Amino acid sequence: MGPAGQRWLAGLAGDEFAAARRAELAAALAAVDPGAALPDDPIEQVTTLVRALTRDGTGPDQFMLGRQLLWCGPDGGSGLAYSCDPSTGRPGVTGTYLAGGSGAQLLTAGGTDLAELIDTQPWGPRLREAVRAAEAGLEWPARVEFAVEHGLAHLVGITPAPLHGAARLRAVATRYRQGRLTPARAVSLVEPADIEQARSAPARCLGLPVAARGLGVSPGIATGTVVFGAAEAVAAQANGERPVLVLAESRPEDLPGLLAATAIVTERGGQTSHAAVVARGLGRPAVAALVDGVLDGDGTSLRTTGGDTVRAGDLVTVDGGAGTIHLGGRKQGTAERQAGTALPGWLDEALSGLPGISVRVNADTGADAAAGRELGATGVGLCRLEHMFLGERHQTLQRVLMARPGPEMAEDLAAMRALLRAEITDVLGAMDGLPVTIRLLDPPRHEFLPDLTELALTSAATGAPADRDRLDITRRLHEHNPMLGVRGVRLGVLLPMLTTVQIQALVEAALAVRRAGGDPRPELLVPMVSTPAELDFVRGLLDDVCDRLGTSREEAGISLGAMIETPRAALLARSIARRADSLSLGTNDLTALVWGLSRDDAERHLLPAYQDLGLLAESPFARLDLEVVGALARRVADEARAVRPDITLGACGEQAADAAAVRFFAEAGFDHVSCAPPRIPLARLAAARAAVAEGATDVHAMEAAR
After folding, report:
1. CB distance 175 to 160 below 8 Å
2. What DSSP string describes 175-195?
3. Cβ-based burial of 395 (10 A; exposed 0-12, middle 13-18, buried ≥19)
């Protein structure tokens, strides 16, 4: 280093910097080779020390060499260049450059925007060409570390650029369209998280204070004005506003408000609460199980532990992925709205020709089924009849549940039959030629009964015999733990007429679609099975209905399946499979019963506390519990296939569409998973990635065996 360089170094690092570094090298050399002399040349100093450290072969375990960007005097500097914008994937050299600074200083202090600087420097053209060549050699956007000395750029290191979200999608898309990537390779380079990140990036809540936190139960970000009732949400939407509906918890009659809301917040609930399931089906951001917010007594404001009070009309932003409610926001313009749920066209094309476990859609209406089919669903994996009685329709089911046998009950059953027949016809028509799994009613009965407290107050105030009668019936039907009570097939056994009406509606709908030239493929699913005899009971009702309608189960083309939601059913899978054409694993209830936890309550306080204490890594309702629930799922598949090799095996529930769960169910031999329409693209991507990875593993295994 010349005099000018020595003066510059002394001014930057101090007079003793060079002497101190030489002393450190000399001490290190003396420790491993006491008789060796440290050379004067700096490069020879380093190489001599490395030789001494590695002479006996044990050196690499005793020391580690690091590399950082070089700076070479007052006329040099250090820089980091990318062959594309790492945040967007847009091609062109970007990065930073720090004149007269080292790589460490570049990382800590930052530098000048390389895109604005590169064309003004003598070393710019050579660096631009080197970055372009690096990308060509890697066949992927490049990250290039460089140093400048005496007007020349020297490359220090070249690595693939770590891209995520929209940037990664763009990089893969470019190479796929150019024919440089096969569909399998393109799919393997895209993570589901990249799709999610690309969708939500334009609406990040930057700089907005957090008012309350809870459980993110439906991803996405939306800004709107707060309302505290379903009717208020409907009115606000009619006025052109974007309402954020805040409730203690939602009930079936709140459906119009949920449909009108741009985002949903519930004080209670969890991943599988009513609001969460509806929000995910609609693609609305939602937060539940608030940990630091509570509604006041009359439900007209939300008070937070931070001292904030959120009132009706306040502007808030809901992040359904992070589980946060932010104060403020701004009205979203077209450019800020989140991207749709569909995959990019090139990725959808790449997926269409790849193998993988099938992905069906959870659809309760013809519109949901059509949306799922448009997104690539191979059928309906779960059509929940109770969801056809949300909103004002819940009164029809409520009257049936509370009615005594007689003309009024017969009239309500007939209305119910007509309603179900019309809805099922729409679903079968939208999914014509593909399987549609129709599940018998599975509501916890209390969801469709009047509120006991409100009814008691009304009865006391009016004294009317009709109100007292309704109160007596509601008390008689009330259960302390309805999730473990009369629901699913149990409700159908206690009320055979209710089950018969559902089956009649299904058979009539299937026959009507077939007479119209369609190809309906309905599968009747029996929920909450605990004993094979329950399946026999429903089959008897199905055969009776078909006889009365002048057909047979075979002519109607209706198969019969059992939902595996109780541990007992999982352990009796062999016996149940002998009586069933299909089995559907319900991960939500099976997880709740395996863990002995309430799905709606545990995620509010208990599970977050367990995660904070390190007792659990994550909620079993957010990620499939592979250790136990997964073990039961494998047992179900093995036992069922042993007696019915051709049996159809499916899985549904909130964990079923997670990438890790999709991979697990594919490996376990399931035929399909089912999820809400917005999650279909991600589940398809996960299924294809799992198949590609399995294929690569098989190839490696074959090569190793040769």
Report:
1. no
2. HHHTT-S-HHHHHHT--HHHH
3. middle
Cβ neighbors of 460 (< 8 A, separation 6 or more) are none
> What's the confidence (pLDDT) of residue 194?
84
Residue 513 CA to its chain's centroid (Å): 34
In 3-state terms, what secondary structure has residue 200? helix
Q: Which residue has the tokens 């939407």?
A: 237
Question: At a CB cut-off of 8 Å and minimum separation 6, what does 314 contact?
Answer: 225, 226, 327
Pairing relation of β-strands 358-362 and 672-675? parallel
Q: At what angle do helices 366-374 and 407-430 cross, to 10 degrees?
A: 20
User: Do 237 and 355 touch, CB atoms closer than 8 A?
Assistant: no
Indicate the DSSP class of residue 211: E
Give the number of other CB atoms < 10 A from CB of residue 193. 13
Task: Kindly list the distances between the CA atom of residue 149 and the CA atoms of 76, 398, 620, 635, in Å, as whole numbers in the listed order.
Answer: 4, 82, 56, 66
- Is residue 384 classed as helix, strand or coil in its secondary structure? strand
- What is the spatial order of strands in the sheet that 77-84 belongs to? 112-113, 91-99, 77-84, 142-149, 152-160
Nearest Cα residue to 245 out of 209, 271, 210, 274: 274
Helix runs in 572-679, H state only:
573-577, 587-595, 606-612, 629-643, 659-668
Active site positions, annotated: 274, 652
Q: Whole-angstrom Cα distance, residue 29 to residue 142?
A: 37
What per-residue confidence (pLDDT) applies to 594?
A: 95
* Ranges of residues in the chain whose predicted pLDDT is under 70: 1-15, 17-18, 56-74, 101-110, 199-207, 330-341, 695-706
Residue 477 bridge partners (DSSP) = none
Q: Is 288 helix (H, G, I), strand (E, B) or coil?
A: strand
In 228-270 the beta strands, taken as DSSP E runs, fall at: 243-247, 263-266
* pLDDT 10s digits, 355-392: 889 999 999 999 999 999 999 999 999 999 998 988 77
Burial status of residue 85 (CB atoms within 10 A of its CB: 0-12, 13-18, 19 or more): buried
User: Which H/E stretch holds residue 650?
Assistant: strand 648-652
Structure confidence at residue 604 (pLDDT): 74
φ/ψ of residue 217, rounded to 5? -110, -10
DSSP letter assigned to residue 336: G
Dihedral sign for Cα atoms in the order 505, 507, 510, 511: negative
The first and second tokens of residue 558, run together, are 């209706």
